[in-house]
Amino acid sequence: MEKPKTFYIALGSNKGDKLKNLQAAVDAIYREIGNIKLISKVYKSPAFGFEGDDFLNCCLVLETYLEPHEVLKNLLKIETDLGRTRIQNEVYEARTIDLDIIFVENSIIDTKTLQVPHPEMQKRKFVLLPLNDIASKVVHPNFDKEVSVLLKECDDESQLEPIKIWLKNPSRQYDFSKFNYIAIEGNIGAGKTSLATKMAHDFNAKLILERFADNPFLPKFYEDANRYAFPLEMSFLADRYQQISDDLAQLDLFKDFIVSDYYVVKSLIFSKITLDGDEFNLYRKLFNLMYKDIAKPELYIYLYQNTERLQQNIKKRGREYEQNIADDYLKKINTGYLDFLKTQMDFDVKIIDVSNKDFVENREDYLWVLNEILLKS
Fold it and tell me: Known catalytic residue: 261?
């Protein structure tokens, strides 16, 4: 899964309820564009380049999977939604909200619609001061100078005053740190790895991903299930047991919780489908011996997707050995999980139907899933 890009955004308002405008913009950026990592103090500053009311200004650090021109398009839409009307050829004007891209990591962009770094940022104290709060060591790629140096060298003599009210980061509404360990499960192609990865990145969690790609029996199993089912399930069980035991035992003082894209009970569910009676009975005995020593998640999430969507996702990700998986096999896996989870008493289970959601490509769907996870948890 690709990594998000880091953007540095400047916000300003000098019309109406200025603080409310800034908060509404922050909320919209989080909802429509990406995760907000940091927000600076809010500063009161005089209007720059025209006579008008004082501005409230701030900066934020944004992480998003969107490309720069897509981010710009969304920022302009947010400005419009919040009541800003841009006047043709008028550079300086009073505004309900003003949203500018200052940096996109160390990129240099020069197009008709977007210039990054912002060509005027080094001249504007109302940008540099809040930016220095959250990105003092970030280097301007054209000038090869840190933001803190640009602030010291800035000729703008405007007097800025920090106000005593902080903007709220919308990500704080999602408190996953109340859990020590969250396991995310699902059928083949349900998106469990993508969701676990995004959550770990956004909410400072230790990420545990299943090491399925190195299993030598997996491609063979899809070619000859009867022959390779038992060695496949045994190798998965041993590897899952070792990995989850090691990773859960290794404390990380700098992470808030643990999130994994599997839990060892999947071994029992898959083996019941793939093994015959005698093999499964032997397998279950071994599983029960190992399972009693494994730490249990406080929250177990099962991502349900219907078979049609699963097949679409499998085709999209393009793993050659998965391309001929039968619908009937996927249906048996779903049934196996649901039957098992109905009677599960060892941990809190939450089943979320994501058949009509695309939480990888659609941020609204991603936030919906986060809300579903925390709902009544």
Answer: yes
Catalytic residue among 261, 293, 339, 346: 261
HSE toward the beta carbon, residue 126, CA cutoff 13 A: 22
- Under 8 Å CB-to-CB from 318, ≥6 apart: which residues? none
Q: Rounded to whole angstroms, how far apart are CA atoms 77 and 92? A: 19
Distance between CA 301 and CA 182 in Å, rounded?
A: 8
State both tokens at 209: 């991903």
User: What's domain 175-374's superfamily in CATH?
Assistant: P-loop containing nucleotide triphosphate hydrolases (3.40.50.300)
In words, the CATH class of domain 5-172 is: alpha beta
Greatest distance between any 2 Cα atoms in the chain = 85
DSSP per-residue letters across 8-58: EEEEEE-SSSHHHHHHHHHHHHHHHT-EEEEE---EEE--SSS--PPEEEE
> What's the mean per-residue pLDDT of the chain?
92
Could you tell me the residue ranges of all domains in the chain?
5-172, 175-374
Q: What is the pLDDT of residues 314-348, one digit of tens each?
A: 998 888 888 889 999 999 999 999 998 988 888 89
Whether residue 281 has pLDDT greater than 90: yes
